[in-house]
Please model this.
Amino acid sequence: MANVAIEEHLIVSELAVTPRSQDFSAWYNEIVVKAELVDNPERTPVRGCMIIKPYGYELWEAVKSGLDQRFKATGHVNAYFPVFIPMSFLQKEAEHVEGFAPELAVVTHGGGKELEEPYVIRPTSETIIGDAMSRWIQSYRDLPLLLNQWANVVRWEKRTRPFLRTSEFLWQEGHTAHATYDEAQAEAMQMLDIYADFAINEAAIPVIKGQKSNQERFAGALASYTIEAMMGDGKALQAGTSHNLGQNFAKAFDISYTDINNELQYCWTTSWGVSTRMIGAIIMAHGDDQGLRLPPRLAPIQVVMIPIYKNDDQKAEVLAVVETIGRQLQGAGIRFHVDRRESVSPGFKYNDWEMRGVPLRIEIGPKDVEKGSAALARRDIPGRDGKQFVDQAVVIDKVNETLTAIQSNLLQQATEFRDARRHEVVGDYQRFSEIIRGGEWALTWFSGSAEAEARVKEDIQAVSRCFPLEQPHPGETGPCIVTGEPTDRMAYFARAY
RNA sequence: CGGGGUGUGGCGCAGUUGGCUAGCGCGCUGCGUUUGGGACGCAGAGGUCCCCGGUUCGAGUCCGGGCACCCCGACCA
Model:
């Protein structure tokens, strides 16, 4: 018996991905390649960079589209700034250059000549956009200035993983300028809300909105805010950030305006970003042993149709039904694909599309032709339980209904998973450590000091993720988990990506 | 940047103490049979064994040097 079990295991591992439950990291590395989100990183000619394949890029386009609509709806406009930034620009904001110096890629030559001033390949664009803003803004009538840019950025990383940390990645960076602190702060919070709304309602990932500790703050910001998500292994992932930059960049780049009293004032600026890391979040929040599970609202293919037949007569009948349903799906605006491959069996196709995370599968075979039915199989409910047979006449209604159900089920599953793994702990450092070592989240009173944070990092390789905006005990104080001193805010701690 | 490891058809690997024609599985191409949960048969194609140098009658194998990549630890959307 034992030998049979081992052989079965070997067969499975040859055919499919390493089960997520067995080795989360290996599962992730394999699934991004096998689901064709990226080219095999080991064969990508540039170290630490990724080739995003069409299926992965379509997923990114869906993310882009969902975010871009939200940005436009709140009055932001897109623009584009150079990928090269004069080195001197970065040096104008002391904390900023210090934060980014270790991971800069620098261009020293162009057109065969050494450049007078080296260019940095943008790691982020606060400086070059700040420089433009200083020229564009003169009057309070020019404010607020609400810009966004979709771009690639480069940060030289020592250890990289597809989507989670790569030397080059795609993102959007919003950059805004305002007349007052309050307006900038409101903007930073508004964008955080937009990110949270996107994560929850499009990506089906529950997130916690919070503020970063000073140690985890963006280099050059007054305050940094984050949406934190829990991955399938319990680790935390920052899925988006928003910064109130205060007047730090305004002063460094002379972004100033004349107010209504004809007095010169510095602007208050913000920046905010979501990157291709969001793809990593979607993979790790929803995936299972069979592969990806994509939320219907973002899935490049929402429905895959598998025709099944034994001979040419059946093929003709089956494909006629497939065409009919296909036209209906198209009319309903549903993204679908018909798997017409002749060289692989239906069973292979089931597994193949499950690995790619397609939310819903429709099987049409001779029996369905005969009965006027169609088989619908949900990706989020494995096996027979997820399969239903519906009348062809109502298939579109059923598809719409089921896609909606899958979307909300993914969110519900992720929420229940997370809520079972976050724990409030007061004054018990031992238990605090055990929670984090056990791969779960601890919510505890925290002073936020550099010393306290360093101690936690030293002890248990974890840092604070955020002070949640929604505090569980507002107005109260409690003992800092590290120092014991009374403090008025609680923070989440967890191991993180 | 410190420690460990690996470079052999597209992918995963075998090739032990040198030996002749470099092999296996998967994938790929063609034909046929199959097709409701990862099909099968037959016939094919595909290799400067990471690079450079050395030892030898003979090097994928031994020696020297180089390069690349992967994994594990300190910094990061």
